[in-house]
Write a structure and sequence with these properties.
CATH superfamily of the largest domain: Formiminotetrahydrofolate cyclodeaminase monomer, up-and-down helical bundle
CATH class of the largest domain: Mainly Alpha
CATH architecture of the largest domain: Up-down Bundle
Number of helices: 17
CATH topology of the largest domain: Four Helix Bundle (Hemerythrin (Met), subunit A)
Length: about 575
């Protein structure tokens, strides 16, 4: 999606069993142009569906409005039963800033949505988190206290007058909460017990709000109060975490249901480890966990690296391998298969038309290159040569990290492998980007030149595209030369049994630099900005010369170790 401003919307609807109702609601969302539906996550036991979609702000609130309206028409709250706290057909509808928009701006859109729902749908709306100015009523759990059944009386209290809509709690639709908040991860941890009371005890151990202090028995003992008569609280061990315990009949186990409201403060893997520790202290074992909705890529990468480091294994492995380690370590696949492509927000936002070349297998890539089409050409091949070169260097680092007898050096080589993976990933993107740059030039040549104004536009477009097509291979040169630092280190200090692989890596990197430079020069020759052209060519000559010297150094090291 190419919007300059992106917000995410994660409405929770009080229906998790009737897929026909859920589909009618999501159809409303998908009817709005500029919105992308990312995930639909129904829960039978909770009788609740979490929907995630993104788009530019106005489109998102239009889609949210239609979904809230449709949910109110289809869901009858007077008949609703479920494990999760709820107060309305659309229980809660948060807006989350994703790109190019502040929290303050997002909060204004939440208010705009709330006002429209209150006026046009005719249900009571409460604002929460960043959209709510009154700090006494900006917490979702405080607003929702009493739930659907208790709200008929609660809404009549002066302090609980809705922000928008009638001062009536609809028998059919209930009331709803709309707001703006940071990205939240809804995360459930599975226990080897059926006891809700024991699950709650663990939840109180870890959640930031903790538990009320009592004399003697922590459940039935007299509440301890301070000098003002207020209950004394024992805080939990995890900041920015809300948690309760419940029993899920569908799975036959109790869970700790958590909202991680700031995953920078308490990441998923830290929450999992702390719950595991507290459960163990109570004679209970964590068996796995469950993600509700979506998660940022970084969360799973951080988790995977955390568990790899605990094993003293290299973290410089592929993204897919790190995610696999995270899923297995957290037990995210215990209750159902975990499909990363459907759960990681960045994967869902990827443009399927991009990175076409690097998704091909080796034979397809070779056939595409050998075809009569001029792209992919030397630029893409140079970038891929660089990928192969640093991949070999990274392989040596990983082999060295796991070499028998070198256990104390695992972190040293893990760091090199991580650096190698970073170069590899950046170069992989440039394999396709070089071809994209060529296609931009062809597109510019295809522009109309019927009028003098159109000729000027076409000429400028050709120059802009050609400049970009010069910068892409120059970037390849820089990255490939930089990657030789890793390759040289592995030739010098890595597993001696793989030193020849480091040598081949150096040959690939050198060839990539020289091949990319040919593309820099041929494209620079077509630029009217001669100062830019001369500067980038001179810089290219410098990189080429330094690369050739470094290749000679590396091959000298390699040949010195293998003889010859």
């Amino acid at each position: 999606m190419k919007n300059s401003q992106l917000i995410e919307c994660v409405p929770n609807f009080s229906e998790g069993n009737d897929m026909n109702i859920i589909k009618q609601i999501t159809n409303e969302i998908e009817s709005v142009e500029g919105v992308k539906l990312l995930n639909v996550d129904p829960g039978k036991a909770t009788n609740r569906t979490v929907v995630t979609f993104v788009g530019e702000p106005q489109a998102v609130i239009d889609a949210a409005f239609l979904a809230i309206k449709k949910a109110g028409e289809l869901i009858d709250m007077s008949k609703h039963k479920g494990e999760h706290p709820r107060m309305g057909a659309t229980d809660v509808c948060p807006l989350i800033p994703i790109a190019g928009i502040s929290m303050e701006e997002t909060a204004e859109y939440a208010k705009k949505l709330g006002a429209r729902v209150g006026k046009e749908v005719g249900i009571a709306v409460y604002l929460y988190e960043a959209a709510q100015a009154d700090k006494k009523r900006n917490n979702l759990s405080v607003i929702r206290a009493g739930e659907y059944e208790g709200f008929f009386k609660k809404i009549k209290l002066p302090e609980w007058k809705p922000d928008f809509g009638p001062v009536e709690h609809s028998i059919k639709s209930g009331s709803t909460v709309i707001g703006a908040r940071d990205f939240l991860v809804a995360y459930n941890i599975n226990l080897n017990t059926t006891s809700t009371r024991r699950a709650n005890a663990i939840a109180f151990d870890v959640r930031e709000a903790g538990r009320v202090k009592r004399e003697g028995n922590p459940v039935t003992g007299k509440i301890v109060t301070d000098e003002n008569g207020n209950p004394v609280n024992i805080p939990g061990t995890l900041k920015s975490v809300k948690a309760i315990g419940w029993y899920i009949e569908e799975y036959g186990v109790a869970q700790i249901s958590m909202n991680l409201t700031n995953i920078n403060t308490t990441p998923v893997h830290i929450a999992f480890e702390e719950v595991s520790k507290k459960a163990n202290e109570r004679g209970i074992r964590v068996t796995g966990s469950e993600l509700v909705g979506l998660i940022p890529l970084k969360s799973l990468l951080d988790a995977g690296k955390f568990f790899l480091e605990k094993q003293q294994r290299s973290t410089g492995v592929s993204e897919s391998e790190i995610i696999k380690i995270a899923v297995k370590s957290l037990g995210l696949d215990e209750l159902a298969p975990f499909k990363a492509e459907e759960r990681i927000i960045e994967y869902l936002l990827k443009d399927a038309t991009k990175n076409r070349l690097i998704k091909m297998d080796l034979a397809e890539f070779a056939d595409e290159t050998a075809s009569e089409s001029p792209a992919p050409g030397g630029g893409s091949i140079s970038a891929y040569l660089g990928v192969l070169g640093i991949s070999l260097g990274t392989m040596v680092a990983n082999l060295s990290s796991h070499k028998a007898g070198w256990d104390e050096r695992w972190k040293e080589f893990s760091d090199w492998a991580e650096k190698g993976q970073d170069y590899k990933n950046k170069l992989l993107l440039l394999v396709d980007e070089d071809t994209n740059a060529f296609n931009k030039i062809m597109g510019a040549f295809g522009l109309s030149k019927a009028t003098e104004e159109e000729k000027k536009v076409r000429t400028q477009a050709i120059q802009d595209a050609t400049k970009y097509a010069t910068e892409v291979p120059f970037n390849v040169m820089q990255l490939c030369y930089g990657s030789m630092e890793v390759i040289k280190a592995m030739a010098e200090t890595g597993n001696p049994n793989s030193v020849s692989d480091a040598g081949v890596g150096a040959l690939c990197a050198r060839s990539a630099v020289m091949g990319a430079f040919l593309n820099v020069k041929i494209n620079a020759a077509g630029l009217t900005d001669k100062a830019f052209a001369a500067d980038i060519v001179n810089k290219g000559k410098e990189i080429e010369a330094k690369t050739q010297l470094l290749e000679t150094e590396i091959l000298k090291i390699v040949n010195g170790k293998i003889g010859g």
